[in-house]
Amino acid sequence: MSTYTAEQMEKRDNSKWTMVQMVLAPLQFLTFVISLGLIVHYLSTGNGYTIANISVLIKIALLWAITITGMIWEKEVYDQWFLAPEFFWEDALNAFALFMHNLYFVALMLGWSHDQLMTLMLVAYVSYLVNFAQFFVRGLQARKQRLEAASAAN
What we know:
Number of helices: 5
Strand content: under 5%
Helix content: over 70%
Radius of gyration: 18 Å
Number of strands: 0
Distance between the termini: 21 Å
Shape: elongated
């Protein structure tokens, strides 16, 4: 089964938002790795809460950025802002990851302790990993489809 129709693949390849997604995804993953390390360091030593907290805020901001630009991309490729049938599960899991990350702000307003906030973010980061994995697989499928199309054209 094709990941994209020929028309969608052309739209995907010609969209400036594809490149934006391709830049934001690894940047967000790098931020995730650094933030995860800072959170684990804080939880294991009790030191470094401020920098871990800053990393969480950067991670949440990047998740919002990739979500918003992804919606623009989806409108260009699938002619629907969100939950296009062809991209339903990617969007659904992204929305869940976004929800999990934004629980941080609710917990902060409820006065959760630093340890509780950082533990919550570990759980939120698991949702991000699932979301990233599907994004990565989707990218590999698109690459394979593009290579097969190029091979068939030759």
